[in-house]
Amino acid sequence: MLQLHYRETGQGTPLVILHGLFGTLDNWQTLARRWAEAGHRVISVDLRNHGRSPHSPEHTYNAMAADVLGLFDQLGLSPDTTLLGHSMGGKAAMRFALDYPDRLGKLIVVDIAPRASDMRHQDAILDGLNSVDFTQCTGRQAADDALARHISSFGVRQFLLKNLYRQDDNSFAWRVNLPVLTEQMTSIGVEITGNQPFLKPALFINGGTSDYIDAEDKLHGIPALFPNSQVATVLDAGHWVHSEKPDEVFGLVQDFVGM
């Protein structure tokens, strides 16, 4: 169990936010501030091997859920806490809900289903991140130039470059534990299973143009583990639905947590 880095703002019913793969808690700060202003105690978290949280050779959902449990204990979070996770963070949130149901009031999962994910679509990102030579890298533009040889999307590169930081010796590095994530990418794609379903309210938010939640997931996969769940589709949004349609995601979460 690792002691996770987090940022806390606001007062009220606790809302804990878990980011996705290659992300950090900063990805959710605009919405975190809005939810805090709306009356919630918002705790944004850096998951293991990401952001400013510790690195570990293990990167499994069991380990991530145990880390989050440690944070719940550290902060004394009440059983009415809502846990929200996006993508990889959504699978970590599902694992937590199934393993520690008494610690949660509600679950929110953003654009991911319990089924196994084919992680080969991450190959170009891994190739790009691993291609950056930090003995030669002089800054953000040099890193972007290296990424661009593998990743054509400007938006994806800007997202990844949020991991770039300057070390004490003035050299640059990635905040993510890239060797471990590269090695354990298959573990990130595994199916989430459970011996007992999570019976409390759950909200799944999916982007209308994303294929991370499909019709089969809505009909069978999600209800099998989360029978008291609903799926809300945000039209004209992809996998990063919270950054593409923040107002819609804010309203969906606010309505659900306030129920």
TrEMBL record:
Locate the AB hydrolase-1 domain: which residues? 14-246
> Is Magnesium there in the keyword field?
no
Sorted alphabetically, which Pfam families does this protein's record hold?
A: Abhydrolase_1 (PF00561)
Domain of life per record: Bacteria
TM region(s), chain numbering: none
Entry annotated with the keyword Signal = no
Q: Which UniProt keywords apply?
A: Hydrolase
Listed GO MF terms: hydrolase activity
Write the protein's name: Alpha/beta fold hydrolase
Q: Which organism is it from?
A: Hymenobacter terrestris
User: Lineage of the source organism?
Assistant: Bacteria, Pseudomonadati, Bacteroidota, Cytophagia, Cytophagales
